[in-house]
């Protein structure tokens, strides 16, 4: 589920709900902090340091969320070689009835794949 914002006639911006929730939380915390400082009537060095730490926390959260998002997208996409290996694995029952020459061609595919090379080298 995405929130969409229509930028102009031809452009639409998609936002994830987690992004909006993150921004709202940090915005509310920042506004409350500034209001408290306004009620106190003065700003000290440590309150300035707290505002800087709040901003650093926002940056860290954004970077971590992007890394998690990228990892989850990488896991969803399966490389072509893996798909071929999965299909070969799914057809193992069919390999029992194949002729020996057909089995050799499947083994050649496995030997050529980078996954096989990594397994062989380890």
Secondary structure: elements and pairs:
Elements: E1 3-6, E2 12-15, H1 17-40, H2 45-76, H3 80-90, H4 92-95, H5 100-112, H6 114-121
Antiparallel strand pairs: 1-2
Helix pairs in contact: 1-2
Descriptive overview:
It contains six helices and two strands. The two termini are 41 Å apart. α1 (17-40) packs antiparallel against α2. The chain has two domains: 3-76, no CATH class; 80-116, no CATH class. The chain has 122 residues and is mainly alpha-helical. A hairpin with a 5-residue loop joins β1 and β2. A two-stranded antiparallel ribbon has the order 1-2. The relative contact order is 0.06.
Proportion in β-strands? 5-15%
Order of helices and strands: EEHHHHHH
Global structural class: mainly alpha
Q: Please tally the helical runs, counting DSSP H or I stretches of 4 or more residues.
A: 6
State the total count of DSSP E strands: 2
How many discrete domains? Answer: 2
The gyration radius over C-alpha positions equals: 27 Å
Flag low-confidence runs: none
Rough outline: elongated
Report the mean per-residue pLDDT as an integer: 76
N- to C-terminal distance: 41 Å
Estimated helix fraction: over 70%
The major beta sheet can be summarized as:
2 strands, antiparallel
Q: What order do the strands of the largest sheet run in, or round the barrel if closed?
A: 1-2
């Amino acid at each position: 589920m995405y929130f969409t914002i229509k930028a102009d006639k031809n452009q639409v911006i998609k936002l994830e709900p987690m992004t909006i929730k993150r921004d709202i939380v940090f915005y509310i915390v920042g506004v409350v902090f500034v209001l408290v400082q306004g009620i106190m009537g003065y700003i000290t060095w440590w309150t300035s340091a707290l505002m800087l730490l709040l901003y650093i926390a926002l940056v860290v959260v954004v970077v971590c969320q992007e890394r998690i998002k990228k990892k989850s997208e990488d896991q969803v996409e399966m490389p072509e070689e893996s798909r071929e290996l999965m299909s070969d694995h799914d057809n193992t029952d069919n390999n029992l009835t194949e002729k020996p020459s057909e089995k050799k061609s499947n083994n050649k595919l496995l030997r050529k794949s980078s996954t096989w090379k990594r397994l062989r080298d380890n």
